[in-house]
Amino acid sequence: MGAMSVAVFFHAHPDDEALLTSGTMAKAAAAGHRVVLVVATDGALGLTSSEYGDPADLARTRLAEVQASADALGVARVVNLGYADSGLGPVTVRDGSGRTRFVDADVDVAAGELADILREENAGVFTSYDAAGGYGHPDHVQVHRVGARAAELTGIPVLEATVPRDLLVKGINLAAKFYRFPPEFDIDSYRRAYSAKEQITHRIDVRRQIPAKRASMRAHASQAAADGGADRTLAAFLRIPRPIYDLVFGREWYVDPRRSGPVRHDIFEDTTQEVRR
Ligand SMILES: [Zn+2]
């Protein structure tokens, strides 16, 4: 086993870690690295069934869910930056908390908060999102901006979590043959989302972390629930038969904006940092 390091995974909402980076997180933790999860918001405006109550109720539920997900992955610490979820709908929708929405946050201020955590943790590497913000949720685009600025402020390399979009569209088309995706699910939006295969610098094999990844996804029960019996995306993904699931979710991808070249297979490959002991 190589030198121990610290990896900080920066996400917009509780549950984003499950889909994008949970395998990498479980793999790093299992290898003895310290893994920290930072969420920008509590996800109070996430789509769910009405049984989860008002946004404040949902926020409490989702923060408990993200802690359960973190526990399943071996995460040592969860931090919530405490911004309000910006939501996917009209910009007039607010979560009622009166806090600054993440999309409205001053990038330098939010990046400074993240940088403080990165320095405090002596992070060797951290992750954010690709420049498209994945499928384009305003909070995800903001994660990209804030992550890029935090990398500048600290000099700590950022890896941008992403998915090769051609593979994603293939997987969704396959799943759509068997399952009913929720009405808000728009496959066309995925044709421009995430990253082209050529941009990807890191491909992490997480097939051995599939049980932890599924546990992480299951922990976010509120995000698998909807009124009227429709599947939410997370629920639809969990119902994909295991061989196909493993094919689609058995790898995770990152873009290192500083480099190109041969695809790497370890997020710690370019870090020289070691944990102070
Ligand atoms: Zn999100």
User: In terms of structural class, how would the helical and strand content be classed?
Assistant: alpha/beta
Q: Which cofactor or ligand species appear?
A: zinc ion
- Tally of extended strands? 7
CATH architecture: 3-Layer(aba) Sandwich
Number of helices: 9
User: Mind telling me the C-alpha Rg?
Assistant: 18 Å
Count of the domains = 1
Outline: globular
Report on this model:
With 277 residues, the protein is α/β, with parallel strands linked by helices. It has a single domain (6-255), classed as LmbE-like (Rossmann fold). It is 37% helix and 14% strand. It contains 9 helices and 7 strands. It has a 7-stranded mixed sheet with strand order 3-2-1-4-5-7-6, sandwiched between helices. Helix 3 links the parallel strand 2 (34-41) and strand 3 (77-83). Helix 3 runs antiparallel to helix 7 (210-219) and helix 4 (107-120) packs across helix 5 (138-154). The longest helix has 19 residues, at 55-73. It is globular. It binds zinc ion. Zinc ion (ZN) is lined by residues 12-13, 16, 137, 139-140. Zinc ion binds at residues 12-13, 16, 137, 139-140.
